[in-house]
Design goal:
The protein is an alpha/beta fold and 208 residues long. It has 10 helices and 5 strands, in the order βαβαβαβαβαααααα.
Length: 208
């Protein structure tokens, strides 16, 4: 008897196109039918309690990188295998996903066959995380400087962390390109970082 027969999955993803693509991959796994959907971690907590899916796939952007909320959900539902999906690989977020109890991490910029393999690995009981460079601990100055950022600068910082370019940041936050660049310059100065990669690592550690 196929041990995966009758297994189910749930997906939390706010973008319809991405949701459909992930659902198609899951539905193609042996033993899985069409997945169900949820719109928030709190809603997922209730739904998992009722339907007990075997696999729960969470888009990090859709839950605003709430790793604490994710950890609580995983703690409440230890039998569910949780995989997170990110826009682009961020080593800090890979570490935070592991610490929260997720068993897999994949990105939307994967080729479809790589995404299929990653989800299949998690569904099959394996851990699935991308290889990432070791994280360096941000300096005390950088840590303190995060607290000095304005609410808008913190929003820009989160956009940098998920790999958005300057124009994407401007469009997402409804500001001009020049304003976005000015905020980024200020963030680099206040945090003592040399480039966007270093800023993203700090953001992953201190914003999430």
């Amino acid at each position: 008897m196929d041990e995966t027969r009758g297994r189910s999955a749930m997906i939390l993803e706010e973008k319809p196109l991405c949701r459909g693509a992930i659902a198609a991959v899951v539905a193609g796994l042996a033993g899985f039918g069409e997945p169900t959907f949820t719109s928030s971690l709190s809603e997922a907590d209730a739904q998992i309690g009722l339907s007990a899916p075997d696999l729960f796939i969470v888009d990090l952007f859709s839950v605003e990188y709430d790793f604490e909320g994710l950890a609580r959900l995983i703690h409440h539902h230890k039998s569910v295998r949780v995989m997170v999906i990110d826009d682009r690989i961020n080593p800090a977020f890979v570490r935070l996903a592991k610490d929260a109890g997720a068993v897999g991490y994949a990105c939307k910029n994967y080729e479809i066959d790589l995404l299929e393999a990653a989800i299949a690995a998690v569904a099959g009981g394996r851990l699935q995380f991308p290889a990432t460079p070791p994280l360096t601990t941000p300096t005390g100055r950088s840590a303190r400087s995060i607290d000095r950022l304005s609410p808008r600068q913190l929003e820009v910082l989160k956009c940098i962390a998920v790999g958005m370019g300057n124009q994407e940041i401007a469009d997402t936050l409804g500001i001009t390109l020049g304003t976005a660049k000015a905020h980024i310059h200020t963030i680099l100065k206040l945090t003592g970082t040399r480039n966007r990669t270093e800023v993203a690592l700090i953001a992953g550690r201190f914003l999430a």
